Amino acid sequence: MNTFPEGFLWGGAIAANQAEGAWNVDGKGMSVADVARFKPSISVEDYKSQWHVSLEDIAIAKETDDVVYYPKRRGIDFFHRYKEDIALFAEMGFKVLRVSIAWTRIFPNGNEAEPNQKGMDYYRDLLETLRAHNIEPLVTLSHYEMPLYLVENYDGWVSREVVGFFTKFSETVFREYKDLVTYWLSFNEIDSVFRHPFTTVGVIEEKYADKKAAEEAIYQALHHQFVASAQATKLLREIIPGAQMGAMLTKTMTYAETCDPDEVLMAQKANRDNHFYADVQIFGEYPKHVLNYFEENGFQIAWTDEDLQLLKDYTVDFLSFSYYMSMVVSKNAAQREKVGGNLMTGVKNPYLNTSEWGWQVDPVGLRISLIDLYDTYRIPLFVVENGIGSTDMLTADGTVEDDYRIAYFRDHFEQMNLAIKDGVELMGYTSWGCIDIVSASTSQMTKRYGFIYVDADDLGNGTYNRFKKKSFHWYKDVIETNGASLYTELQPATK
Questions:
Q1: Dihedral Cα 461, 462, 468, 469, nearest 10 deg
Q2: pLDDT at residue 324 is higher than 80
Q3: Where are the domains of the chain?
Q4: In CATH, which superfamily holds the domain spanning 9-487?
Q5: What GO terms describe the biological role, i.e. biological process, of this protein (predicted)?
Q6: 385 annotated active-site
């Protein structure tokens, strides 16, 4: 089988906060993304510092309209250029585009009685444009874009009231776009609560007495997101019969450095902890090892019997995930060479190549992950983020010779196909940043992922014109042949 299953959903993915810009246009409120600052003085491998936002950072951000050092406020101007960009995606043959709806375009503070009509109209036109090009929308309800007002006035997702605000937001968009969207995701990378709690759940750790108190608050916020996801799934089934809700996980594939049983156990724990978030949304209950952890640490997570029943009754229809790299754990980590990445710092794997941003490129790890997830959950899978950030050079004739990107995707696609042959039910694939966008962690433009080059630099200088990279044409061939071009030279990539 040298093609993918019939109806396989090939496409790409972006997020509103990294692409749209227009951060204060047509009544949009401030989100957590609007206080994320470009930090050129901090190493791109210092993941924690790049994401960190303090109370002082928020106060400073609220006093300025700057879009130079707050790049997510400008994005790539997708807000005004979405018709042009969608036409390019259609030219590539996209079957699906993953987008998010910025909560603050619909409810600027998050708690308004009525939605912002201009925001509602914007997304209707965007989704209708996708449909006009025969592109299926895959819509994320919350992609690192919660209203800043809810962080400052409700302590983010730690507050039970935020569940109600999110439920109202979900019901509003379900009713408004029920004729346009079949596939939905509740929370982007819901497991990221501990990697960057401010961005994911609006928790500012410095407000808490100590690290343990902050950890308990984060788990409380996470529980509220689990409840909100189940509530949204319930509403979706009532409002749009036949629609599907997916969970979204960051798949962190972790290996032991050696066959030392202690290191194998370390890797098993890391992978088990990663699966916890999917366990709740797919099995409908907290795994026993997490409940034991709460008890051992004296965590008092407030939940009700109704919460637990809701989780059980409204599990998701499919599991989507991002996959960028694998990790290695070692008992001797302090003495080992380290690599950075988009997730965390880990021990260098000598069998893998490393990108310029410190990522360990591991296509086989994607196959392992697909098999692992499918054998565990036995529901359809969807790869909704995968790609490589790199420095691209625009040539004089207006393209980018990105053979390195083509090689990256070819290797990952081949492993996906092998996983399908191994029995995995894979719905589709959306490459991350199918057009260059502002990077999530570093807030850079020069960390480029796309098949389409956007003429803008890290400080926002440039024409913002779009240019097709060499990979644009290569991916078009892959989609057109449903993967057959990966195995033949009959249809080579062209400029």
A1: -50
A2: yes
A3: 9-487
A4: Glycosidases (3.20.20.80)
A5: carbohydrate catabolic process
A6: yes
